[in-house]
Design brief:
The complex is a heterodimer of chains A (111) and B (113).
Chain A: E1 4-7, E2 10-14, E3 19-25, E4 33-38, E5 45-50, E6 56-59, E7 62-67, E8 72-77, E9 86-92, E10 100-101, E11 105-110
Parallel strand pairs in A: 2-11
Antiparallel strand pairs in A: 1-3, 3-8, 4-5, 4-9, 6-7, 7-8, 9-10, 9-11
Chain B: E1 4-7, E2 10-13, E3 19-25, E4 31-38, E5 42-49, E6 56-57, E7 64-67, E8 75-78, E9 87-94, E10 103-104, E11 108-112
Parallel strand pairs in B: 2-11
Antiparallel strand pairs in B: 1-3, 3-8, 4-5, 4-9, 5-6, 7-8, 9-10, 9-11
The chains are: A mainly beta (111), B mainly beta (113).
Chain lengths: 111, 113
């Protein structure tokens, strides 16, 4: 049972373009939505996180957009760079639920 | 600046063999976790611990056991390895719970043949 559905599985974007990764959830008790970034051969690292009291959070070129009514949240990477090439995981937790991860998106930024 | 350290980095087991994956964190974190990562399935929680001497089951605990005798160490054991346990295993820790930043180790690639 996948509680957080992430799409697309893979994404190729040209340098300077906008990368968009989407996640959807069902459990309305979720109240913390982090994104993790993973480079090959490394463990995931927290990139940015949002709580549902705000609809958007921006840190540098990375923005989380959150739509509570649609139960969706997305990661936008502006001015994508080759160094952003990595696997990205969305996740969610809240209520009595443990932290659950999406399936992951392998992002490739072409120079 | 070690953070979370996992050993070994790679291991090949034969079916039925046993092994222990070791994890150490130097951040005085209370919570520790073991995840497995499989293609197309994200990260799935195997077991976790909220403090020294305590452990609890996660999403996929079958075939694994854990122990946390010291606050900084969290061990994952496979008693009788099966091909379905071929995966990349990650240890992680956090100070106050999974709704805070998780710090991950660099992973253990395990193959069961």
């Amino acid at each position: 049972q996948q509680q957080v559905k992430q799409s697309p599985q893979s994404l190729i974007v040209q340098k300077g373009g906008i990368s968009i990764i989407n996640c959807a959830y069902e459990n309305t008790a979720f109240d913390y939505f982090p994104w993790y970034q993973q480079f090959p051969g490394k463990g995931p690292a927290l990139l940015i996180a949002i709580r549902p009291d705000v609809s958007e959070k921006k840190e540098g070129r990375f923005t989380i957009s959150f739509n509570k009514s649609a139960k969706q949240f997305s990661l936008h990477i502006m001015d994508s760079q080759p160094g952003d090439s990595a696997t990205y995981f969305c996740a969610a937790i809240g209520g009595a639920q443990k932290l659950v991860f999406g399936q992951g998106t392998r992002l490739t930024i072409n120079p | 600046n070690a953070g979370v350290t996992q050993t070994p980095k790679f291991r090949i087991l034969k079916i039925g063999q046993s092994m222990t994956l070791q994890c150490t964190q130097d951040m005085n974190h209370n919570y520790m976790y073991w995840y497995r990562q499989d293609p197309g399935m994200g990260l799935r929680l195997i077991h976790y611990s909220v403090g020294e001497g305590t452990t609890a089951k996660g999403e996929v605990p079958d075939g694994y056991n854990v122990s946390r005798l010291k606050k900084q160490n969290f061990l994952l054991g496979l008693e009788s390895a099966a091909p379905s346990q071929t995966s990349v295993y990650f240890c992680a820790s956090s100070l106050g719970g999974p709704n805070e930043k998780l710090f991950f180790g660099s992973g253990t690639q395990l193959s069961v043949l």
